[in-house]
Amino acid sequence: MSQFKQLRFAVLAVLLTCCCEHARSVEPSPADPAKPNVVIFVADDMGWGDSATYGNELIQTPNMDRMASQGVKFMQCYSACGVCSPSRSAILTGRTPYRNGVWRHLSGIHDAHLRESEITYPELLKEAGYETCHVGKWHLNSSQHFNNPEFPQPGEHGFDYWMYTHNNASPSHKNPNNFVRNGDPVGATQGYSAQLVAAEAAHWLKDVHDPSKPFAMSVWVHEPHSPIATDTRFESLYKGHKNSKYMGNITQMDNALGMVMDALDAQGVSENTLLFFTSDNGPVPGFGGVTGGLRGHKRSDHEGGIRVPGLARWPGHIAPGTTSDVPVIGTDIFSTVLDIVGIPIPADRTIDGVSMVPAFAGTSVQRTVPLFWRTHVSPADDRVAMRIGDWKIVGNDTLTQFQLYEIQKDWKEETDLAETMPDKTEEMKQILFKTWADIEEQGPSEWWKGERQKPTANAKLNY
């Protein structure tokens, strides 16, 4: 660990002792409601319309349905970016991607990575006595940095235990051979990726985790990201449909969610666990995913690229079977976790996310930083977006042309109000310029300035 982090943790230890009753040095009991467990389950490239839970009339997602019946369904949940790596970095740090440095997908060879100087919620929970685990996709460093001890890996970001891949399951979801467990290659496997990841989560919870301690676990499955492989038991549910493989792949992912929920039940910890389900971005066109009528898709800053499923279950704290129309975003996960555990937000940096605890009950949250998106591979006319209340502004790659939508009424973004409401457009533009200038000043801009704003040749859009 760097001297910087050692010093920071020493300061945090004092702050936690002095300022926060919940962070006393007495080791908590997992039954103590002041120390809830946390599980964040993230699907890969799943569209807002890719589940029965969000209105799809064909795709079966019984475990998402079960989770929604036991908690809250967010109707306006967003990823922090229209592509994978940046949105995942925001979940861990609470900071918008250009601010935390993971400004682009990391499928090629890049200097960009999740820097050790970033503070993640697993780090802070670990300091507060939690055990931590990550299973599944990582994608927070480049291919040449993956499992390379010279660059930060999950252990440097607060995880005690991890089984991960760099990006996709390879050669596909079936029998992947690219998992690494705590630095050691796993080798050949038998089964499908989502089930392998969920089984590893269950194994850690049952056989590795110290039950006297609270825990935080990330379960980041690969489904439905290409290259898709679907178990016949799920694909056969849609026999005869031209999209049966993709639809079955969603059900395969949903089955893994059920395995994690069952594992929590088996260990008797469901009642004291916040379980959050979401996706890293919208669906890829041409692979079968759907946005539920939203405009755009993965890589877009229109709603179809960034509005994703969002479910939260926390028995005794979230009313079962409810819906929330409050906009929330992946960066909010960081602040939410710290809020429910009782850990102060780091004061030495801008945290873009806010606690979504009020939104669990449908109450608005108060933001000092607007909802903001900048996706480096978005179409040129929707490279950046910002939302304040019901208003959303979308800008082009040079920040010279803008669209304006009243998103609550026009959730399909069909009516551009920029010309008919010039004053509102100008107001939103000025806030957007200020927000972006602040982000650019704080982030490692040397990583993106001058680099071409399109995928590298070796990435082949497979991210």
From TrEMBL:
Keyword Metal-binding: yes
Alphabetical keyword list: Calcium, Hydrolase, Metal-binding, Signal
InterPro entries to which the protein is assigned, alphabetical: Alkaline_phosphatase_core_sf, Sulfatase, Sulfatase_CS, Sulfatase_N
Molecular function GO labels: arylsulfatase activity; metal ion binding
Cleavable signal peptide: 1-23
Pfam families cross-referenced by the UniProt entry: Sulfatase (PF00884)
Annotated family: Belongs to the sulfatase family.
PANTHER family according to UniProt: ARYLSULFATASE FAMILY MEMBER, ENDO-4-O-SULFATASE
Protein name from the UniProt record: Arylsulfatase
Species lineage: Bacteria, Pseudomonadati, Planctomycetota, Planctomycetia, Pirellulales
